């Protein structure tokens, strides 16, 4: 297929594998399970190892099936290159492993996925200082920046309280200060939002969630948008300075995080994710519509104390959501009136499944404070606005009427 036609998002992703030759005319990139790749010419093998020509060296550093997925994610995010990892946390961990040194400083949103929060706490104990701020206001980010700040890290829509970072203005700040801006796009996905539009240099996606979309494979990705000037980044090793500046960040990440740390994505998981990604736009349209309908229903019920969903006009960052995102996404959370036990409520649901994943085709529910955020303690939860009775909902693709009826009947006690 030619690259010349300006195809839409889904058409591009659906036919992306066929833009390059595929064995036997397969419509999907086959699953390559080999961990070693032989060459008929030893000089060519050396050339591949030295980065002088494309090719595969060893399964931990790349694989044809994983490479096809990386190309797909790059096109989704309108980037210049992508590295896939075994999990989303592997991708975030790569930032520390490859790009940060003792004495560096990170400014991070305080509204974070629980495991990301835990990772930054670990990082803080290993010589990299981390300041957590309310990133819904750029002024808080600016006030925390120091001369040694190397990175600003935010999520688009925070899990689980759905706070939306001041994305565009933080991007302007980072560009003016020459700071690497990293945006975790997991809860919006490249279909609802591209962080490149607000100046992000690196984009994180947990492929386990909506991009894979079916809860059957773990994976993560870092995409370089091409906007950050790596030649000015102080932590690039000299051997990577030999490459063009645009390639230096990904080259160091692939070597220092993927090769050295070993969080490689397997080809079988890459295949599952690549196939799931083909329907990303269709699923996000459906789950976002379902989430908005459910949020409106819950907000109108007097037995519900609070609903958090950026698609609601009552949400503090609804304006940013309307300006930047196609829709409000599939994540919402809510609190019940004190007279209703949240565990009993969850047990009355017939369609909402108590489970900890996000972005599945099925609707998943979880009592946040008692499970995924239990480890961080009551004080930290309170600082993040997480009430003890908060229920998180990852809304699926069920028929809307069925979903609303289920959440409504669970309130009838």
Automatic annotation (TrEMBL):
Gene3D superfamilies named among the record's database cross-references: Aspartate Aminotransferase, domain 1 (3.90.1150.10), Type I PLP-dependent aspartate aminotransferase-like (Major domain) (3.40.640.10)
Return any one Pfam family short name: Cys_Met_Meta_PP
**UniProt record similarity statement:** Belongs to the trans-sulfuration enzymes family.
Keyword field: Pyridoxal phosphate
**Keyword Cell cycle attributed:** no
Q: Which InterPro entries match?
A: Cys/Met-Metab_PyrdxlP-dep_enz (IPR000277), PyrdxlP-dep_Trfase (IPR015424), PyrdxlP-dep_Trfase_major (IPR015421), PyrdxlP-dep_Trfase_small (IPR015422)
Q: Which named protein is this?
A: Cystathionine gamma-synthase family protein
Q: Which cofactor does it need?
A: pyridoxal 5'-phosphate
NCBIfam families cross-referenced by the UniProt entry: PRK05939.1
């Amino acid at each position: 297929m030619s690259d010349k036609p300006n195809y839409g998002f889904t058409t591009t992703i659906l036919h992306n594998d066929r833009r390059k030759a595929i064995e036997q005319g397969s419509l999907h990139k086959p699953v390559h399970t080999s961990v070693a790749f032989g060459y008929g010419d030893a000089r060519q093998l050396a050339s591949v190892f030295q980065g002088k020509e494309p090719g595969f060296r060893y399964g931990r550093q790349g694989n044809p099936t994983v490479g096809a997925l990386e190309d797909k994610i790059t096109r989704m995010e309108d980037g210049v290159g992508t590295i896939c990892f075994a999990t989303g946390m592997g991708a975030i961990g790569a930032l520390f492993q490859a790009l940060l040194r003792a004495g560096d400083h990170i400014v991070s949103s305080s509204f974070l996925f629980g495991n990301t929060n835990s990772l930054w706490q670990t990082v803080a104990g290993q010589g990299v200082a981390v300041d957590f701020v309310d990133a819904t206001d750029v002024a808080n980010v600016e006030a925390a920046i120091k001369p040694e700040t190397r990175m600003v890290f935010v999520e688009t829509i925070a899990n689980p309280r759905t706070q939306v970072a001041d994305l565009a203005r933080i991007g302007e700040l980072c560009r003016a200060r020459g700071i690497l801006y990293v945006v975790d796009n997991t809860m919006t996905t490249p279909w609802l939002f591209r962080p490149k539009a607000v100046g992000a240099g690196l984009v994180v996606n947990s492929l386990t969630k909506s991009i894979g979309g079916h809860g059957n494979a773990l994976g993560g990705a870092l995409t370089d948008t091409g906007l950050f000037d790596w030649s000015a980044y102080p932590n690039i090793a000299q051997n990577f300075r030999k490459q063009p500046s645009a390639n230096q960040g990904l080259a160091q990440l692939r070597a220092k995080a993927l090769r050295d740390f070993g969080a490689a994505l397997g080809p079988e998981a890459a295949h599952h994710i690549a196939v799931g990604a083909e329907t990303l736009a269709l699923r996000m349209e459906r789950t976002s519509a379902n989430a908005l309908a459910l949020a409106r229903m819950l907000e109108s019920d007097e037995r519900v104390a609070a609903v958090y969903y950026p698609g609601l006009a009552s949400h503090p960052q609804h304006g940013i959501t309307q300006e930047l995102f196609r829709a409000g996404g599939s994540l919402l959370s809510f609190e019940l009136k004190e007279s209703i036990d949240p565990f009993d409520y969850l047990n009355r649901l017939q369609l909402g499944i108590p489970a900890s994943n996000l972005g599945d085709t099925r609707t998943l529910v979880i009592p946040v404070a008692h499970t995924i955020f239990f480890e961080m303690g009551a004080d930290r939860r309170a600082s993040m606005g997480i009430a003890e009775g908060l229920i998180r909902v990852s809304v699926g693709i069920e028929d809307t009427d069925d979903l609303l009826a289920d959440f409504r009947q669970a309130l009838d006690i």
